[in-house]
């Protein structure tokens, strides 16, 4: 097998085969009180950061009951409302609603959900969460393991009431 010598100009770098878009944005939320403005904010962030795929991960009501006290709409209603909002948004981004928790129909630990998303989608990984959800995630023992693998986008302003673990890893998250 003959090898061909190819001459290239000094400083030439081959084009990146992955293209400009890379990474997965996971939107981990209950989507209980999600508005079109919230959705537009997420889609604008994904477009600005050139995310290859945006994954909406609605949390099942059994998981929500263990994370936060309160009552929530049934899972399927929240998913249907999110689906309708996404259809109205008319975005050209690659958007997916991940229905992993609908198959399980029970409590799904955060570690299991993140492991599932990590195995199914391409990295690097970014998670879009609210401030309350970020504080909940930071309170779990496995937070230190996960914050090293992914980056957080936290909705809202200020660092009032932030969990000490979030403040410790302040370089791994951004306010949006």
- Quaternary structure annotation: single chain
Average pLDDT, rounded to a whole number, is 89
The global form is globular
Distance between the termini: 54 Å
Please trace the helix and strand order, writing H or E for each element. EHEHHEHHEHHEHE
Stretches where pLDDT is under 50 for at least 5 consecutive residues are none
Question: At the first level of CATH, what is the class?
Answer: Alpha Beta
Instruction: Please indicate the percent range of residues in DSSP E strands (runs of 2 or more).
Output: 15-25%
Compile the SSE list and pairings.
Blueprint: E1 24-29, H1 36-48, E2 53-58, H2 61-67, H3 75-89, E3 95-97, H4 100-104, H5 110-120, E4 125-130, H6 131-139, H7 143-147, E5 150-155, H8 164-168, E6 173-175
Parallel strand pairs: 1-2, 1-4, 2-3, 4-5, 5-6
Explain what this protein looks like in three dimensions.
With 176 residues, this protein is an alpha/beta fold. Helices cover 40% and strands 17% of the residues. It has a six-stranded parallel beta sheet. The longest helix is centred in the middle third of the chain and has 15 residues, at 75-89. The termini are far apart.
